[in-house]
Prior knowledge:
There is one protein chain. The radius of gyration is 56 Å and the shape is flat. The protein is about 5% helix and about 40% strand. Strands 93, 95, 96, 99, 100 and 101 form a 6-stranded mixed sheet that branches. It is mainly β.
Amino acid sequence: MSARIKPGTYNHEFHHKQSKYVVKEYSSSEAMEERYEHKTRVQIEEVIKAKMVEKYVREEPMIRGPQFLVRLRSHTVFENTPIKLFCTVEGFPMPVVKWYKDGVILDLSSGRYLVEVKGGSHSLKIPRCSTEDTAQYTAVAVNNHGQVSTQASIIVKRYKEEEESSPYAWLPYTAAMIPKIHYTKIDITFVEKFGPVFATEGDSVSLSATMTLNPNLANLQPEAQWYRDDTRLFDSKWVKIETGRGFTKLTLPTLYKDDEGCYTLRMVTKGGTAEHSAFVSVADGPPPVPNAPGAPMDIKIHDANRDYVIVSWKPPNTTTEGPILGYFVDKCEVGTENWSQCNDHPIKICKYPVSGLFEGHSYYFRVRAVNSHGISKPSRMSDPIAALDPTEFERLHAKKLGGKVDVVSYHDDVEAEGKPPGAPSGIYASETDRTYVVLSWKAPAYFSKAPIWYYIEKAMADSNAWQRVNTQVPIRSPRYAVFDLAEGKQYKFRVLSANMYGISEPSDPTGPIETQALKGVPSAPGQVIATRETDTSVVIQWAPPKEPNNLIGYYIDQCVKGSKNWTSANHKPHKDTKFVVSGLTTGETYVFRVQAINELGLSDESQESSPLSVRAALTPPSAPYDIALLNCNGHSMVLNWKKPLHSGGANVKEYYVDKRKSGTTMWREVHIPPVKERLYTVEGLTEGAVYQFRVYGANLAGLGPASKHSEDFTCEAWTMPEPGPAYDLTFCEVRDNSLVVEWQKPVYAGSGPITGYHVEYAKKGTSEWTTANKTAVSHRFLKVTGLEAGASYVFRVRGVNAAGVGKASMASDPVIAKAVAGSQEVACVVDEKSGDIVLSFESCQMNEGSHFIWKKDYKEITDFSKGTVIKTEGSHSKLIFTKPDKEDIGTFSVSVTNTDGVSSSHTITAEELEKMLALSYDIRHPIIPLKSELAYKILERGRMRFWLQAEGISSNVTYKFFANNKELSGADPNKMGHDISTGIIEFILDHFTEDNEGTFTCQITDGGGKAQSSLVLIGDAFKAALAEADYQRREYIRVKEGPHFSEFLSLQVGDDCSVTLVCKVANLKKESEFHWYKEDTEIVPDVKPDLGAGVCKLPIKLFSVKTTGVYKATISDDRGKDMSQIDISGKIFEDALNKLNQLAGASAQELVIKCTATGIQLQCHLKYYTSEMNVTWYHGETKLSHSDKTVIGGTPAMATMEVIEPVDKDKGPYSIVIANSENSHKRILDLSGEVYEKAFAEFQKLKAEAYAEKNRGKVVGGLPDVVTIMEKKTLSLTCTVCGDPKPQVSWLKNGAEVEPDDQYVVSLDQGKFASLTIKGVSMEDSGRYTMIVQNKYGGESVDIVVSVYRHGEKIPEAKPALTPKTIIPPKLPIEIPQPKTQPVSPAPSPAPPVSSPTPPKAAPGRGMKSPTPSRRK
């Protein structure tokens, strides 16, 4: 019996520095231990919860302490055998597991123990046990939030010795020495698997797989485990996992580059695992600004403390973007969405200490990259991290009172005498960087109630000038980061403990600790070698850089040879020097290069690899299988086997056969040269002996593995009368309910010839065989029908002779009755042109090396002497019978190699062949179809061309032309010919005369086809043709002898909307004259015609209806005269106008508003406008026409539409449409809202100003500019004035108002006739007189210069005033009287001012002397 012992005590110093609480394990009994652990955990968690409420932001993923899902099991093993302990742990962050033997940490460097970690699964393997390995083994799992352990015993027994008692036989958590369990073996076959995925950041991707289980037991379903690069994935914010019976799916809702990697699905059962992997590529998403870098990735948090954390990340690839200048680190407190930037300037390395955090608060972090173009999108944010003292909960402990846990408290809270703490010890640098060092030390033994803290002092390594680092912040944990150090310098550090009672002595200083120097990026990787893997992937290998400089990983770039368009093969640094580049194009040639990367950035590119074409790599074939015995004569055996399932990318051309006697282990090769076929006779056997055989396959890549050995074959001669087994069963034309089986005839025929065959089939996994054909078939193929869609079947064949049914063949491989997706059937047609019978087939699959094989009655067609032709283009193949006959009856099949069994067939029956032969004869002996019957055309010199056009003619065509049944000769001067490409046949009659009236006929012969066409030319038709021929003859003579028009008049419209008449003249001389006419009236253009150039042009200005008419041009000299005329009307005018519409519409600018005194005018500026153009105005959907309300018009450069006296209903969108025969152009303006209000205000203003201008005071006429008069005469200045209301008139002399008196008489008769009379003028009356006419709408002032001279003096020459008339503006605001009796109607266009009536006496003209003599006073 095993003796119970006390549990061993082990040192707790191995506990991780970040552990939060300690759970002691007792071994008094399993139940007591569980109760104690539970109570202790509850008590400690209550303390933690209380502190969380007071201080911390609680985050669910942050409090997942370690927990063992599968604990260690004890084992008893024999000496020199292997043993493996394994456990599964979960927690967040992922716990670290350490192994102990009897409380002492294992030395893994000895190689005696092997530790494996896959996700949360941890194992300890002892490859060869000895009695010294008998011990208690402990696995301790630790993370930031706690620590747990599990124990198991290993008892190593000497071989075949009696079982010894072990001090570890009793265990608290497991039953002692459980007997070996034989687990149910579950075979897992993946039905549908996920493949490589190429996605972009922000996309959503799902990876799914379906599988079959055998046996499929509801209570023994496998566990689906998903991994990314060997890291176990669990349901989280970033990953969603769904698993059901026979399927599992992993979804990445929002992709980041962190998600890139090799994804592996492991279906785990107690009896083993099945797994499948594929690569997921995540490319950079669209950047915020063009050419900005991609986002950083893989954000990690290191050394979290009370007020700082250290953030690290990996840089993005910059294959197509500029180099990265630096990074910004952002933080966000958990529970908020307020991101703040931690660094003011970009940092160049991929690590940054973030300080200034609030103790107890939790934070997220993210990073953005910067280059010369801008800032990238942020990385995926980190997991939340709390700014906590790492030893906050390590100081908690449980105090046991009376066998129970009663008190949970801090070590600090234990009562002790008040004295300073002891000095720390064991100070060392756990991490060094360029500008900081993370120090760790061992806390002193301490039992005081007073809190303890630490001070750190630093000094240069070569001095003793100590400087305290943390003067403001007390350090409570035995780990702290010292920042702001110089790069590449040596320092030494020491630590002091302190409490309220004082400070300890300093610890022993560290040795020199040197901060890292900035070494730069890694050197370029070495030689890059690309090798083939599959038809879409390549394996890349390279040498690591000679100067790694803290290497993080590698980026791989790919480029199609010759394109220089480099793209990234991976978007997340790859750690190994081997990478599989997926998603390549089969057959394309690529080159590759690699860059190394560290926290400072990317290295130079490596040298490019040698170009490599993408195709599957050659590998040795898989093993042959199913070795069958086909015949035995007592001293030899005939063997057959099935070819390997996987050829390795090359044909299996050689086989090697080994033999051995049953019961022995020595194999012997039975032949030296390899076997080419899968049928081989093994000679020299011993009669009665029992043999086993195995076979190897070989291709260009080498020798494959050996097959499974055959069954025991006894070397006894076959004497049975029935046939032996058939062999080599193959299948084609697999459909949902049918398939075709083919086989090879048996080697052993029995006592007589083989007369037929029976085919049997059974569902896979059953032994119920069904005979497909009740009557034996003589040929070696059979179409089996009546199958169940989707079911899996196996087949076998039996030969039949006169003695009976022979041995069954070996059962075939399983075949699923399911058609290949997209499969098509063979089509049989007769070619409409050649008459050939054509069997055609379109393959739904084509792979590298695929080719078509045509068979008749399932025998490959190799005889092409009878005119059978095979033509293949891409995925389309044809079997063509160019000489079909009655022997072409049978089943014709086609199969496509290197596919999933693509094949089809068509049976040509005697009845179908007879119909096709008849149709073929009709096609090959046709009546030649004609596109056009015989017609004529009159050519230059009056020659007559007779022609027709056939649908098609060959080079063997012959033809004849007849006139009134008399064959016409094609000899000179006549001509005859044809054009095979167009099918035109023609005959040119040089001289067409009155004798040619009658019937013209053409007869054609082409191969077996014939055609005939006739043309009757008699009566009026003949006379018209003859007249035209005479005209062409005369015209030819005219053109050749005198000046003439080489091109007659035509009307051209230029891009600038200019319209020009153009013609060309030829055969000119110096005296030739050119003239233009319109309607027989000569036109003299501004620019004379350029006869030297032979081109004459007449511009037509302002093209419109007014410019239509008959235009004529003449050219003449002493040799003769020629004329050309054109009638610009009808279609010619419409075509020109349509062209103007097209050009003007394309040039139309946006509508603009121009207000007038009568309304609001919309203007559209364009290249040309005339009222005849197809221009339409719309108000909304209503077409507008010219009226009193809407005035439509324009100028040659502008189209206008004016709304007269607009009102509210005139608001809305207005548009102009300029249409031509091909399209239209539309411009829109919305006359509403503020636009309308502004326009309406402007219209009102202009309207008022116009009204004022019309009705203001005006001088109509009668006043001269200058008056000269003799002294003592009477001067009368008289004029007519107007205005409404009647204006007031005043006079000024030299700027001063004239006061009426006896000498100055001012009068205004009837409000129209104003006068100033000066009686007896004197010299003092000379000067400038001003008459002012004004009413409330304004007026004007007129200056008259009066010059008085004495009798006998020379009449002076007076000069008028510089501004004889000045306009007086109206008083504002201008009031317009409204009608009283009837509503306001739209105001018509303003009429010109009404002329004032003629005054009784005409006023003297300006610049004339007054005829009235003046009188002196």
